[in-house]
Amino acid sequence: MDRKSLLAKIPMFESLPPEDLALLESRLEEKSLPADTAVFTQGEPGDSLFVIQEGSVEVALEQGKRKLVLANLHEGQYFGEISLLDGGVRSATVRTLKPTLLLALDRQDFGEFLTSKPRAALSILAEMGERMRQTNELMSRQVSKNVLEEAEEKLTFGQRVADKVAAFGGSWGFIGVFGGIMLFWMVLNAFDRISWDVYPFILLNLCLSTIAALQAPVIMMSQNRQASKDKLLAQNDFQVNLKNELGIEAMLRSQQEILHRLAMLERTQGQGGKPTAST
Predict the structure, then answer these.
(1) Under a CB-based contact definition with an 8 Å cutoff, are residues 258 and 250 in contact?
(2) At a CB cut-off of 8 Å and minimum separation 6, what does 122 contact?
């Protein structure tokens, strides 16, 4: 895919005319990286947009030893557009998955392009406004999911039985029923004529031991599954919170950039520039 087509696939630039895309294309710089190499890391200053011409990269959020993979990007996709707009720090770490050829657009070159092309600047602002609307719509939707229902749907018959046994075995109903059976057993065996398990109730002790031996692993199976459910809930909460945080951060940055670009256009008009875009 040629460079102009790659630029045209980026939402910020898709509405630009061919001559403006050609001008942007001339400002791109090639950057070739081997596999498993960091393009940039989370927290470092950023000033470039990258377009993948060949290869693929992994976008991840790193917090200490934990890593959450946000996306795997391939040929024709792009990343780093937020830092291109505001020059802030990188919000994620990007690492190549295989030998990759990138096209980099520097923030300074991008600023000079906007200053020389007021119509293109207005077009880019319109695209950014549309992306903000999409972000607002995304933030208003429910992004969480019921991981417990998904886990329940995957349970086998044996696992469902184990959960039922564990739920009944840890209830007052079980204590009452089992206590009643034991009392009934001991009362009946107190009479010599109908007794089958005389004091000290050896058969009853054997039954109790057998039930306890069978019940213990079943309850442990259910407890282990509950621990897995808790882990799924914690992971889901983390991902939802992270998604919300990144979405809000991107929305605020977009708003700030729109105000910055509007101020730049006003200064351009004050210095004699006449944007040709129609309202």
Answers:
(1) no
(2) 265, 275, 277
CATH of 3-116, one of 2.60.120.10, 3.30.1360.10, 3.90.550.10, 3.30.300.30: 2.60.120.10
Cα 221 → chain centroid: 30
Q: Which residue has the tokens 């509950």?
A: 226
Q: How do the domains of the chain map onto residue ranges?
A: 3-116, 144-279
pLDDT band (50, 70, 90) for residue 151: low
Burial class (CB in 10 A: 0-12, 13-18, 19+), 224: exposed
Q: Cis peptide leading into 217, omega within 30 of 0? A: no
Q: Report the predicted TM-score, pTM, of the whole model to 2 decimal places.
A: 0.46
Q: What is the mean pLDDT of residues 134-151?
A: 58
Q: Nearest Cα to 205, choosing from 182, 187, 177?
A: 182
